[in-house]
Write a structure and sequence with these properties.
The protein has 3 domains: 208 residues, P-loop containing nucleotide triphosphate hydrolases (Rossmann fold), CATH 3.40.50; 38 residues; 122 residues, Up-down Bundle (Zinc Finger, Delta Prime, domain 3), CATH 1.20.272. Helix 7 links the parallel strand 3 and strand 4. It is α/β, with parallel strands linked by helices. The protein has a 5-stranded parallel beta sheet with strand order 2-3-4-1-5, sandwiched between helices. Helix 1 runs parallel beside helix 2, helix 11 packs across helix 14 and helix 14 runs antiparallel to helix 16.
């Protein structure tokens, strides 16, 4: 992962490279900011630049043996810490560490450095568990950093989502984060820095990474996905500086036919109060996987908004495909000022529960049952 691979964020890149080149990089950094801004890719790019002995002018050489190892995430002085789950059948007092899941971590990052927390949950197959960074992890970190650098340079620890650290783990890392061995760098990458214990926060230099500029997202979409300038501009304007959201929108476009079919089924069975079909529908959606479930709920919310607007007879304000419009001609009268807020709240609540890793069958079946009341409320 090179700085050139990080979408936009040129000002942050320049600041970090200058700190490295002028030997004034803080020993503990906290990267934070809105989702989809490239915090984790930026952390790995900084580690790459720092570890490459041939770096210059903001660029790692990307050809030396060190760079080859970093690109595969197998450099012996680059360590990753991240939330993990207890393995099936493990005792209640067992505590896993990140190294037990490093193969899954590497494969996910190499496939998509901008992966989300929900992508990681799906990779872990956590079921109803909440992944954590357990106390045992602190011992692993201390042991690794007590040894000399195997490559003769920096030792770097990237902690992804430090807000998931058990308090005991955080407390055991306080001293080494405050006074690390020579040429040791901690990079904490956080989605919710307010949930990190204050004693850890006070020992880091916070770097707030902003949303990605629309022009940078637009360029990346054309380069990486071959979108036309018009389509790239549309997605860039709608994703709000969030690359994860931009990729989700592309997946929704791919799944649009499936989502329309599932949306229309849901509305019909809710109107018909067909409990048996609701159960079948919820099981079908539960099998899609978490990211596609989120995409479906995004799609349902968009369709409800568009159908509500259709009632105002302002065609220029409605953005629907021909298939969507054909369905909506009959459905739009069922969405009005009496029920739109209730329907949207049910869909938003379901989305929130999916992100919290609640059982998908229960979420979608419960949502379908609740929609009965709102669809009938005309």
């Amino acid at each position: 992962m090179l700085f050139a691979d990080v979408i936009g964020q040129d000002i942050i890149k320049e600041q970090l490279c200058r700190c490295v080149d002028e030997d004034r990089l803080a020993h503990a950094l906290l990267f934070t900011g809105p989702r989809g801004n490239g915090k984790l890719p930026m952390a790995v790019a900084l580690a790459h630049y720092l570890l490459c002995a041939n770096h210059s002018d903001g660029h790692a050489c990307n050809s030396c043996p060190t760079c080859v190892k970093i690109n595969k995430l197998i450099h012996s002085d680059l360590h990753f810490v991240f939330p993990v789950r207890k393995k099936k059948g493990a005792s209640s007092d067992s505590a896993p560490v990140s190294d037990e899941y490093i193969s899954e971590w590497r494969s996910l990052f190499i496939k998509n450095p901008y992966f989300s927390y929900n992508d990681w949950l799906e990779k872990l197959d956590v079921e109803n568990q909440q992944p954590m960074i357990y106390e045992r992890e602190s011992g692993e970190i201390l042991q690794k950093l007590s040894m000399q650098s195997r490559e003769g340079g920096w030792k770097i620890v990237i902690i992804w989502l430090p807000e998931k650290m058990k308090e005991a783990c955080s407390n055991k890392l306080l001293k080494i984060i405050e006074e690390p061995p020579k040429d040791t760098l901690f990079i904490l990458v956080s989605e919710q820095p307010d949930m990190i214990i204050p004693t850890i926060l006070s020992r880091t230099q916070r770097i707030d990474i902003p949303k990605i500029l629309p022009v940078d997202i637009e360029a990346a979409l054309m380069e990486r996905y071959g979108l036309t300038p018009e389509d790239a501009r549309r997605v860039a304007q709608q994703c709000g500086g969030d690359w994860e959201k931009a990729e989700e929108m592309l997946r929704v476009d791919t799944d649009k036919g499936l989502f329309l079919d599932l949306f229309s089924q849901l509305m019909r069975i809710a109107y018909a109060r067909n409990i048996r079909e609701m159960k079948r529908w919820s099981e079908q959606v539960a099998a899609l996987g978490r990211e596609r479930q989120k995409g479906l709920l995004d799609y349902c919310q968009r369709m409800i908004r568009e159908n509500f607007i259709m009632n105002f007879k302002r065609g220029e304000m409605v953005y629907l495909s021909n298939d969507e419009r054909n369905f909506s001609q009959r459905f739009s009268p069922f969405v009005n000022e009496n029920n739109i807020i209730g329907i949207m709240e049910e869909l938003a609540d379901a989305q929130k529960h999916i992100e919290q890793n609640v059982n998908a069958k229960m979420i979608f079946f419960d949502m379908a049952l609740r929609l009965i009341v709102w669809i009938k409320n005309r």
